[in-house]
Design brief:
By secondary structure, the protein is of the alpha+beta class. It has six helices and 15 strands. Strand 2 and strand 3 form a beta hairpin.
Length: 341
């Protein structure tokens, strides 16, 4: 097995350092993030591992876990990243940032996953300025394949044990000669949610509906992504049926599509792999993409059977009141789990 040289992290480190100094903030996640490119059997995979010292979870904080996912629509800072084509994306307005902070405060989730995020440092700035009293001591983000630099990240009250990227995974569809990669990534963050349990939190932002070459509305690309997500999670759950696994994010497809069907399809043994925790909500309460005339359900929280059994009844919700959502064209999705059943 040969380890291929990745792009030098020095440039990214320098850019990150300038953001830290400009925001006047410190890194709140305890640990170091290492990214390696590894070629295995002809396939190139990116692995990013965040190593931390295990931290005991206080009993009074471990009874429930509220999880949210929020596409924050082009949350970009004032710094130009010379390594991505972000010149056409405006800086996020102060008004929009304040609105996002208000929504996060109202959700009061223990873990929030973000899509359409420029970098980790906008999360640090958000927490330091607006959410410093909410216990979000663990913050990280991973770069993705996006040419314009929209990434995936989380803020968490629970310790982050590792972060893994699947951005270079080769994606195929039966009968199609093409090979894709994730338009962004399948980012996995392992969280220590109780002294006994971890949560494998997969965050995605599947390909947009913009047409690709020979692929109207990029439907095949998204289906290839969904197929890979289902395979990765199925393998994880098959290896440990008791694993707590959640897959969250912006899937850019509605419940009546092949993408959704693939994500919720059984594994090779006929067992359920991912359960949509918002599936029982009325259609009007499931709307997550808010821009007219395209209002639709495209953001989800899926859970493995072992985790779904811990979902608190009637806790799954979508905050889609347009009167309070001025920071994004997406509504956040939220669910609470009972951790001591």
């Amino acid at each position: 097995m040969a380890i291929d040289e990745c792009l030098s992290p020095m440039a990214h480190h320098c850019a990150a350092q300038s953001r830290r100094e400009a925001f006047g903030i410190r890194h709140l996640t305890f640990g170091t993030l290492t990214s390696l490119g590894i070629r295995v059997s002809g396939h190139f995979i990116a692995i990013a591992v965040l190593c931390v010292t295990p931290i005991a979870i206080a009993d009074d904080d471990a009874n429930t876990l509220t999880l949210a996912s929020y596409n924050v629509e082009n949350y970009f800072d004032v710094f130009d990243d010379p390594y991505v084509s972000d010149e056409g994306t405006p800086v996020k307005s102060r008004r929009a940032i304040v609105a996002i902070a208000k929504v996060i405060r109202a959700m009061d989730a223990d873990v929030v996953a973000f899509e359409e995020l420029e970098n980790e440092w906008v999360l640090h700035a958000l927490v330091v300025e607006f959410l410093s009293d909410m216990g979000y001591d663990h913050i990280t983000a991973l770069p993705t394949n996006s040419r314009r630099g929209i990434n995936l990240g989380i803020i968490s009250r629970k310790p982050i044990e590792s972060a893994t990227s699947h951005r270079w995974l080769d994606l195929k569809l039966p009968g199609d000669r093409r090979t894709w990669q994730f338009a962004r990534d399948l980012a996995m963050f392992r969280l220590r949610v109780t002294d006994e349990h971890t949560l494998d939190l997969y965050v995605v932002h599947l390909k947009s509906r913009r047409s690709g070459d020979g692929d109207p509305k990029s439907a095949k690309w998204r289906l290839a992504e969904a197929t890979a997500v289902q395979r990765v999670v199925s393998q994880r759950v098959a290896a440990d049926p008791t694993a707590w696994v959640a897959v969250v994010g912006d899937f850019n497809d509605t419940p009546d599509t092949d993408v959704y069907a693939k994500l919720t399809s059984p594994d090779a043994e006929g067992r359920a792999t991912l359960i949509d925790l918002h599936a029982t909500l009325p259609a009007n309460r499931r709307i997550t993409y808010l821009s007219k005339p395209f209002r639709s359900t495209i953001d989800y929280i899926f859970a493995s059977p072992a985790l779904a059994r811990h979902a608190v009844a009637n806790s799954a919700r979508v905050i889609n009141d347009s009167a309070v959502l001025h920071g994004s064209d997406h509504a956040p999705v939220v669910v609470t789990f009972e951790l001591r059943q």
